[in-house]
């Protein structure tokens, strides 16, 4: 019989309409036995250390008729998403007590994960901070790496535009493009983020979309010869403006559309004919399609981090009580870099 301890949890109380509010969530305390339940043959008990705040979580809050590889939340329910944890007990022969893992877990102090296929064992925890596996070495990094190199099919010297460029994915895509010798411009919503893009992350230029009354004109200013690659994170008016500024045979990788997630009626896109006229390839993709190549990703990206050739910015919120505000802040641009919630010190065992 294991020790029974308290377990703080973030619960979604209702399906969300419009922008989520802190009142849509509740931080509660339950109890959990620090032993796998009887009959859990392959389950894993983990102590969660870091949780990832990601825009896709807003999609899961709505009763939407969409296909999604992760189940929608059914309120009242403990949130779940990507996180980093330490294994306390394992029924999976590939994981043992003391191992560190990243993958889908609950927004709580302790979680029983019945499907260990959703977990990746961390083998390089002394090389980088464990929190990096919520982002640059986890789902975010895999998204940016394969989204850019595989979906965008970049070539040296091409003109690359990245929206939400200071966010978790955008900051990495811009640096990958620069390392290939591309000209890279990003957009963000504050002067602090613009300075970050140009001075720390190495973008050739950046602009504040909130200060532009005409996005079409702004893009013509930064891309007088047009755009070869657009890495799409926001959708809406930005996508519409990009379509009339793409070069022939340009590529648009559709990673996300954060500007649309809180709208009851999503905005339409009006310049679709340019896809035909400019022979543009528009492709959506899911990170799940590339997890079988995770070791390939690590071999490419981990040395860049260790050699300090790849910058990475985290925005750390402390404690589960700060979780709802941190998650909601994604949709108002409150975060600078990858938004993470620190649940417990990484050295903590129980």
Automatic annotation (TrEMBL):
Residues 44-341 form the Enoyl reductase (ER) domain. Keywords: Oxidoreductase. CDD domains: double_bond_reductase_like. One of its GO terms (molecular function) is 2-alkenal reductase [NAD(P)H] activity. SMART domains: PKS_ER. PANTHER family: ENOYL REDUCTASE (ER) DOMAIN-CONTAINING PROTEIN, PROSTAGLANDIN REDUCTASE. This is 2-alkenal reductase (NADP(+)-dependent)-like. It comes from Cucumis melo. The lineage of its organism: Eukaryota, Viridiplantae, Streptophyta, Embryophyta, Tracheophyta. The gene is LOC103503360.
